[in-house]
Amino acid sequence: PVFFSYATCGGEDEWSKEVPKIGTAGCRCIGFDNIPGSTDIRLKLMDGGSKKVSYPAEIGGTCSAWDKDVHPDCAKEDAPAWCKKKWCYVDPCACGLDEPPKVTTYLPLATFTGKSLYYSYETCGSEDLFTEKFNLDACVNQETKEDCLELKVQKGSGRKCAWTGEKCLGWEIVEHPLCKNVAGVQQVKAAASGRAASVVGVLFALIAAATA
Q: For the CA atoms of 118, 120, 124, 126, what is the dihedral angle to 10 degrees?
């Protein structure tokens, strides 16, 4: 491989500090770019209403603050902080970041390689200030197994989310065969299995002591 160095030339490496427009290594943006036209999206607004808004057709293809000056809530003087945050759509089975991607609320029926469309702020080096308060139906916001499994991609269709034993994540991240090595999910499953094994061991010990 060919390596580069700014230091050897007496320069400071500012380039490597920047997250690439295509996202962090190990969780790249899905990459469609330079697509002409627009996409109409029905948005839920902070005041409880909704509005159809036209976004660029390439929305989410690369890291960008897609909502800035486009989302109605982001066109206000007191626009929330998430409006300026960069995000993009990613393949959930090719994203090994500690913070898992979330199923999109903008294009809920859209798919990428047969999987639901997932977004990530983290891969663009941004903090996700949107999901917790403004995407209440996000899988990660569901605190119980019942609430988690109740959510559907659309009414009457397949499940949107899956329960790991500890938390709720997008269905593909937990159940899709191509996502089996996604970082974080396997650790959660292993921890849950370990606790289950410990409980079984304690029960056997109690039974053995009672019958001794």
A: 160
